[in-house]
Structure formats: C-alpha cells, structure tokens
Amino acid sequence: PYAYLKISEGCDRRCSYCAIPFIRGKHISVPEETLVKEAEFLASRGVKELILIAQDTTFYGLDLYHERRLAHLLRRLSQVDGIEWIRIHYSYPADFPEDVLEEMNSNPKVCRYMDIPLQHVSDKVLEAMHRGVDGKWTRELIRRMREKVPGVALRTTLIVGHPGETTREFEKLLEFVSDARFQRLGAFTYSAEEGTYGAKNLKDSVRPSTKQKRLKELMELQRGISLAYNNSRIGTTEKVLVDGYSSGVLVCRSEFESPEVDGEILVKYDGADASSLVGQFINVKICGADDYDLIAEKI
Fold it and tell me: How far is 44 from 30, CA to CA, in rounded Å?
C-alpha cells in the first residue's frame, strides 16, 4: 500500500565523505506534472502512501523553478485522489525550507515525520564533513521543527569515527542525542570512499575497534530513548496502515513509522476479513511496546 516516489536525482552538495555526486551527477528535479501523473497512476493501483525520496529532497525545484518547491509539491500530491499519506525522506539540514514545516503542520495528508540525516553535531567534525552547518544551527533546527510541528517524529542518521572525531567530539555527540531524543536513529562507522575529498585529504585517524565501540555505545543510548518513546504511546489510539498479514498478525504502521527502516505496530487478529484489511487504514489501541516495535489491538 506504499510506494517510493523519486522526486529528483543527483546532488550538488560536496560532503567530504560522500561519493554520490560523482556517481549520480548534479541535482536534477523531476517536473511536478510528471510526479503528479505518477502519483495518480500509483493511486489507481491501490497505493495509499507516497514516500518522497531523493539524494536531497529539500533541494527540489531549484533547477527547474529557481526556488525550493518541496512544499508546493506536497500540496499538489495531496490533491491526488486515493493518496492519504505523504512522507518525506532524505532532507538535508542546511538551508532547510521552513514552508515545508508549515505544510506538514497544516496538511493532514503530510505525515508528521521527518528524515533528516544530521551526521554529527561537533563543529570540528561538521566542518571536516563539509556539511555547511554547525552544532548550534543543528540544535536550533531541531528545536524549530518540534515547535512548528508538535508531535513530529524525527529520524536521523549519524556517522561515528569520522576523521577529527576525538573522544571529546564523540561525547558531544552522545550529549546531543541524549538531549534531542530522536524517535528514530541509525548510525554508521566512517569509511573512506574512493574519490571523495575525505579519502584524498583526511587521515582516517580513528581505529576500527574504537569506531565499533563508539557505534555500540551510541546505539545502546538510542535503544533506551526508543523504548521510552514507545512506552509513552501505550494507551493511545492511532490510525494505522495495514502493510501485511501473516500467521494471525496484522503488520501495521502509523504516520510515525516509515517502512523498512522503522519499527512496526503488530496487531493480533483472526477475523475472516484479515486479508482484505491489507492496504486499508484501521484504528488501533497501543497496548504494549519493546525497543522498536509496538503491540496493539484493533478497535
């Protein structure tokens, strides 16, 4: 019941660790009319949720329309009959278009969910990464997102062991994650990609064993944050989309979970109509939680 809609290809950023600009080329937006037609086709096939993807979704429209048009695109796509949810992935933090937050807060079809890879919070590491932002700006962006979109679920990805990440820089990252309390978080250890600025000019100074130790520590911190968030939802009633059914269990998601990368909401159900519920929205009551998944009962 969901589909990925690629709104652009390529990237004009020059992050020091990333080879995508060399592989994919410069940013090229897909015209709005083309995307609307594709969304109409997907809706006709039973798709209820569009997941917007690109190397950088916030850059959408600059090449075609000479302005950032992601918010405008959201409005266009939300007018397609049959599309009930629109989810945004891969949003670059620098120059983030604030009108996207306004659209997310006011448009019921735009999921209160933002995937925004921040990579780090240390000024020293962010400068080495060529991210175009510093730690203060990053913290302020998170604050604005939660202020303008109450209840938004934030997903981020981080890199540990990047050249220049000392013990002190890593401790800053842990403190940031502890304070920001991201609902979703993934992390990776740094590895030099051939052809990138980092591989050519930065010494991979952090030992592999140290990278793995830091990754484990970071993800253990996030495990506790995720569990606390899931526990806070126990007793709430939520609208969910049924992705599948197997062995007496409906596999569902709310607007706060993206498929394949986040947890699921599992509903025990043995009704004769179980299979026909796949691809439909139902209301459930959350009654249990673990680190990443939720247990619920159909209402």
Answer: 21
* Per-residue exposure over 171-203, b if at least 16 CB sit within 10 Å of its own CB, e if not: ebbeebbeebbbbbbebeebeebeebbbbeebe
Q: Could you tell me how far CA 55 lies from the centroid of its own chain?
A: 12
User: Which run of H or E residues covers position 210?
Assistant: helix 208-232
Tell me the pairing of strands 237-246 and 249-253. Answer: antiparallel
Q: What per-residue confidence (pLDDT) applies to 22?
A: 86
How far is the C-alpha of 148 from the C-alpha of 97, rounded, in Å? 13
* Structure letter (DSSP) for residue 30: P
Given a contact cutoff of 8 angstroms between Cβ atoms, the answer to whether 278 and 242 are in contact is yes
What would the pLDDT profile of 40-72 be if each residue is shown by its tens digit? 999 999 999 999 999 999 999 999 999 999 999
Sign of CA dihedral 198, 220, 137, 165: negative
Q: 31 pLDDT exceeds 90?
A: yes
| Long-range contacts of 123-126, Cβ-Cβ distance < 8 Å, separation of 24 or more | 124/164, 124/169, 125/162, 125/164, 125/165, 125/169
Q: What is the model's pTM?
A: 0.94
CB 285 within 8 A of CB 297: yes
